[in-house]
Specification:
Family: Belongs to the prephenate/arogenate dehydrogenase family.
Bound molecules: 1,4-dihydronicotinamide adenine dinucleotide, 3-(4-hydroxy-phenyl)pyruvic acid
CATH architecture of the largest domain: 3-Layer(aba) Sandwich
Helix content: 40-55%
Strand content: 5-15%
Oligomer: single chain
Enzyme class: oxidoreductase
Order of helices and strands: EHEHEHEHEHEEEHEHHHHHHHH
Low-confidence stretches: 290-323
Number of strands: 9
Keywords: Amino-acid biosynthesis, Aromatic amino acid biosynthesis, NAD, Oxidoreductase, Tyrosine biosynthesis
Strand order of the largest sheet: 3-2-1-4-5-6
Number of domains: 2
Structural class: alpha/beta
GO biological process, one term: tyrosine biosynthetic process
Protein name: prephenate dehydrogenase
CATH class of the largest domain: Alpha Beta
Number of helices: 14
């Protein structure tokens, strides 16, 4: 499909792409670049690519597909470093969890001769680093592409085909809309998890040890999310500020209503909300988009595929693994 794939950043997502692209024969050669020599050595030891470069400009030389897989805060520096070395006609993409900021930062730095098609696979885990990736990560997950109007449709279709070959469903979206949707479905859930685990961490020592000792599945599930990479998530909240604040405003209003219902002992209001939310959970499961129980119980660094949706549904009914 591609002659040379260059991956800049080789953590959970970059290494999962490397593994899946290799498995499905999607690139003749895979060039890997990352900032630290230690991570590059790890990637080499895992056999993730064909060439390994500390200099990202060397990695992108002759590449017809370049994908940035670093935390979003590194994009500007990486784009400055590779811009002059990009091959005319190359597709330049990324996997960042925010999109409007990525367009704002990268677009002015890129030569007009490349096809710039930002992307976001909505698939991941709380683990990071080259050993955390696995080739099945993208199977049955969405990958959102956010090209500007006027982008070559053939280039968009080629990149969409790359993601489909790794098992993803592809949707094209406006970057601002992407950021609003992901703010409520992904970014705020992470913020809530960081907050609740932070609250426990600030409790006095004796209470804290009891919380840890008796932690029920609800709190345990939050700790999984709150174990996600601090740098990556710092960058998400720095770069999707407006959408996160907008959705957080609505969230706070709803939390106040819930607080009032608890204070007033308003059973019908509580039950009505919990019934509506249970229905949402079931519609997610039925749509085959269940991720929590399916993906996140897997041990760090193994290549065990995520269970098929049918298995996940069974677990959901019987196991009580979900928050
Ligand atoms: N972790 C997740 O579940 C998901 C993450 N994403 C996005 O994917 C991107 C990467 O995330 P992960 O793979 O989870 O992170 P990670 O922490 O596992 O890997 C990041 C990689 O980038 C490298 N790196 C950092 N700064 C760099 C720089 N200046 N130049 C070159 N390399 C640099 C690191 O050495 C590492 O190899 C982020 O933008 C994130 O928003 C998207 C979907 C899911
Ligand atoms: O680990 C989790 O619960 C996730 O939600 C994974 C994830 C993290 C960031 C993304 O941009 C997309 C998916």
């Amino acid at each position: 499909m591609f002659e040379k794939l260059a991956l800049i950043g080789i953590g959970l997502i970059g290494s999962s792409i490397a593994r899946a692209a290799r498995q499905h024969n999607l690139a003749r050669t895979i060039a890997i670049s990352t900032r630290s020599a230690q991570t590059l050595d790890e990637a080499r030891a895992l056999g993730l690519g064909d060439t390994y470069e500390l200099d990202p400009a060397k990695a992108v030389e002759g590449a017809d597909l370049v994908i940035l897989c670093t935390p979003v805060g590194a994009y500007e520096a990486v784009t400055r470093a590779i811009a002059a070395a990009l091959m005319p006609g190359a597709i330049v993409s990324d996997v960042g969890s925010v999109k409007a900021h990525v367009v704002k930062v990268m677009k002015p730095l890129l030569p007009a001769s490349v096809h710039f098609i930002p992307g976001h696979p909505i698939a991941g885990t709380e683990h990071s680093g080259p050993s955390a990736g696995f080739p099945e990560l993208f199977i049955n997950r969405w990958c959102v592409l956010t090209p500007e109007a006027g982008t070559d449709p053939a280039a968009i279709e080629k990149l969409a085909g790359f993601w489909r070959a790794m098992g993803s469903n592809v949707e094209v979206m406006d970057p601002g809309h992407h950021d609003m949707v992901l703010a409520i479905t992904s970014h705020i859930p992470h913020l809530i998890a960081y907050n609740i685990v932070g609250t426990v961490s600030d409790l006095e020592a004796s209470t804290k040890s009891e919380v840890i000792k008796f932690s029920a599945s609800g709190f345990r599930d939050f700790t999984r999310i709150a174990a996600s990479d601090p740098v990556m998530w710092r960058d998400v909240f720095l770069t999707n500020r407006d959408a996160v604040l907008e959705m957080l405003g609505r969230f706070n209003e709803d939390l106040s209503s819930l607080q009032r219902a608890v204070r007033n002992g308003d059973g019908p209001a509580l039950e009505a909300l919990f019934t509506r939310t249970r229905a949402i959970r079931r519609s997610i499961i039925n749509a085959g988009q269940e991720t929590a129980a399916a993906d996140f119980g897997r041990p760090h660094g193994t290549d065990t595929p995520a269970p098929a949706p049918a298995e996940a549904v069974q677990r959901d009914h019987g196991g009580g693994e979900d928050a």
